[in-house]
Amino acid sequence: MGRSASSSWVLLVLVVAYVIGCVHCNPNYRDALAKSILFFQGQRSGRLPVNQLVSWRSNSGLTDGHLAQVDLSGGYYDAGDNVKFNFPMAYTTTMLSWGTLEYGKRLGSQLPNARAAIRWATDYLLKCATATPGKLYVGVGDPNADHHCWERPEDMDTVRSIYSVSASNPGSDVAGETAAALAAASLVFRKADPKYSARLLKTAKKVMEFAIQYRGAYSDSLGNAVCPFYCSYSGYKDELLWGAAWLFRATNSVYYYNFIKSLGANDSPDIFSWDNKYAGAYVLLSRRALLNKDSNFEQYRQQSEDFMCRILPNSPSSSTQYTPGGLMYKMSASNLQYVTSITSLITTYSKYMSSAKHTFSCGNMVVTPSTLKYLAKKQVDYILGVNPQKMSYMVGYGANFPRRIHHRGSSLPSQASHPQAIGCDGGFQQGYYTSNPNPNILTGAIVGGPNQNDAYSDERTDYSQSEPATYINAAIVGPLAYFAGIYST
């Protein structure tokens, strides 16, 4: 009797130890997924809807566009500031749409929320594309003036300058990305809202035609209005390929296929981001080779696999650094933006491989769908707390997460608790330089992340580590839905 009780006790201790030690074996992907989408409500510009859940935010930027006698209200603030940069916003929209397309069923109850997040951006992008014939508006708010102030979006009194590209001041990169966003979103709404979908696709075609006809980088046209913030460092050819690839998926038109072929894209990237779209275009186009067995797209399957070989840690052709804790490390400034974007490609390519029962090799190393899935899961899990710091880099997820994020609205008291306006300089003293935790939790926000040694300081002044951004979050929605569908908690 005593021995049996003792054995039971030992077994109970072992089970408890296993559970405690395995708290992070499979994070709660479903919870993280919901929060990753909720984050976008905290970034909204414009008049907020009655069903707004991030209640510490209020209406802002209602007169955006008035300097040009157009309505450019709406859209998203890109990160911790109050500027609307359309280049990263359009990429955010494309990635949200792609994740929703690939993992719609796995999104479950979050599908309507994902669509709402996409639509908040596309409603704004449609205005930018159609408000003035011959112009594509690509941003609102003087970034240099904005970055000299620390104000809530609701209080901002910096000049809301309006930036555009046109035939005489081209921007093939921002136009190509805008076309990609509208085309990808048109697929998301094809069944849910056919009329809206048709409008998105019609506008995408016009914007893409503009991108093709008037070639040039928007950085050259707009100068310090977009540089060094969101310069088009990789040029505009990748956006032409990316935009055409999305329009080809949305239309199946031979026109876009021929244009894609005419570009002759042979770049060999080891990165994917709001700036460099080559790898994303390769994976998107490889779908035809893997799922449709279309030999015309074999080139893109090979280029996708070459990219994966440059990412995989044990590949002989890997050019990707990893931290001691196993995090992909690409650049010191906001590294997690590259991690989430690359992880989205790894997850999606793994999915295509599984459907096609396909494997490939990096030298002597055989890569299966599980190889890619394992790497993607490791990156997602690291972000959610399975790391040397035992810190979740998603705000509001888990018990230990960043409390001093580089974000104006989060770091300053809400209008509800502090109705008086907080001025440009006053915000620095009240919100930026204080060591106090942010008063408002920007639930779901993923910050820039730790350094190459897995260290994170949680300092508001270190924007490279502590600033969240829409494009970091947009890219992880797909992987989170993917793993939520596999590992139910």
From TrEMBL:
Pfam families: Glyco_hydro_9. Coiled coil: none annotated. PROSITE patterns: GH9_2, GH9_3. GO terms for biological process: cellulose catabolic process. It is an enzyme of class 3 (hydrolase). Residues 29-479 form the Glycoside hydrolase family domain. GO terms for molecular function: cellulase activity. Its EC number is 3.2.1.4. Residues 1-25 form the signal peptide. It catalyses: Endohydrolysis of (1->4)-beta-D-glucosidic linkages in cellulose, lichenin and cereal beta-D-glucans. Gene3D superfamilies: 1.50.10.10. The active site is at 406, 458, 467. It comes from the Eukaryota. Keywords: Carbohydrate metabolism, Cellulose degradation, Glycosidase, Hydrolase, Polysaccharide degradation, Signal. Belongs to the glycosyl hydrolase 9 (cellulase E) family. This is Endoglucanase.
